[in-house]
Amino acid sequence: MDFISQVGERQHVLVTEESFDAQYNVAHNKFYEQVLVPKKPEFKGKMIEVDIYETGKHFMKGQPVGDANVFTPSIAKPLEKGEVSGLIHEFSAVHQNGINGNAASSSAVLLQQSWRPDGVTVKVISVGLALLAVIVAYAMEKLG
C-alpha cells in the first residue's frame, strides 16, 4: 500500500487499541487503514478527526484536529488492556448481592448461579457417563 498520497488529508478515525510498541493508539479510517494517533486514554473507543502528517509502508500517523474533541462517542467504556468483556459486571453483581470473598469463591458462586441442571439434563449426563464407563470397560478388556 502506498499512503503517501494521503498526507495532508483530514480523516475520521476510530481509535481501537494501543500500538504494539505502546507509543501510540491505533485507529482505523473508513477503509480500515491503520492510523497511529497520540496516546491519550480519552481517545480509546472514540471517533476523532485527524490530519495525516506522515506515512509508512503499513501505517499513517494522524494529528488530532484542534482540541481533539470526540467526534462520535462510543456506546460503552472501552475495555482496558487484558480486560475480558463481561467479567467485571458479573463479579460486581456477585459482590452487590452480599457475597464477598476471594476470586476463587466468587468464580464458584458465578458457576453455581449460571448453570443449574434440570431433570432432563441430569438424565442425559447420567446416561452419557454410563455409556462412557461401558466403553472404557470394553477397551480395558480388549487391551488386557
TrEMBL record:
<dbReference type="GO" id="GO:0035598">
    <property type="term" value="F:tRNA (N(6)-L-threonylcarbamoyladenosine(37)-C(2))-methylthiotransferase activity"/>
</dbReference>
<keyword id="KW-0808">Transferase</keyword>
<keyword id="KW-0472">Membrane</keyword>
<feature type="transmembrane region" description="Helical">
    <location>
        <begin position="120"/>
        <end position="140"/>
    </location>
</feature>
<dbReference type="GO" id="GO:0005783">
    <property type="term" value="C:endoplasmic reticulum"/>
</dbReference>
<protein>
    <submittedName>
        <fullName>Threonylcarbamoyladenosine tRNA methylthiotransferase</fullName>
    </submittedName>
</protein>
<feature type="domain" description="TRAM">
    <location>
        <begin position="4"/>
        <end position="66"/>
    </location>
</feature>
<keyword id="KW-1133">Transmembrane helix</keyword>
<keyword id="KW-0812">Transmembrane</keyword>
<dbReference type="InterPro" id="IPR002792">
    <property type="entry name" value="TRAM_dom"/>
</dbReference>
